[in-house]
Amino acid sequence: MSSLHLPPMLWSSDAAWTELSRRPPSLATLVFGVALPAAMLPPAMLSHATDVGSAHYLPALSASAWQFVEFALFAAQLVGFLMIRWLIGAVAATHGVRASARDACLLATVSLLPLWLSSFALLQDGTLAVLVLPVLAIGASVALLKRGVRCMLGVREEIVALEIGIVAIHCGVLAWAATMAVFLVPGLPAL
């Protein structure tokens, strides 16, 4: 699968999903070759944005405070990924569908790619893209997960596939927000 397969995967269950279900990558490849490097993208983009224009985002924060925020963001990316991976299997099981560890990891990795890639919005100065792109990425993630669940797990009911996608992505985003809060709220006075 290449990055060119990602856009058609949003609206076609058969685009690259069939190929992925036939020859799924190993768990190690998914985690260490795709998920971890992609999870490093948002903190790296934030680092770049603050180096280039920290006065634009939050001018009062020191460089060490920004590094702490970047670490918290990376940790939150990993917690969100693990939560989504677990939820795919848990929600699927409530509907009598079995998701193997590799299938759940593959679905979580592919569905999170739009969210990780949306961090490229930080390369430009406007705040509109920084606010709008992640919201669009959440929609794309749900669509990818819905299509992937239908093809990879054999779920034929549209509403069940949509439920798995919505619950997993939104709970993953909540896990991400909670992790950010755990790291950042106690440190707010120091920032």
Automatic annotation (TrEMBL):
Parts of the chain that traverse the membrane: 65-92, 104-122, 128-147, 159-185
Lineage top rank: taxon: Bacteria
Descriptive protein name: Yip1 domain-containing protein
Keywords associated with the record: Membrane, Transmembrane, Transmembrane helix
Organism: Thauera aminoaromatica S2
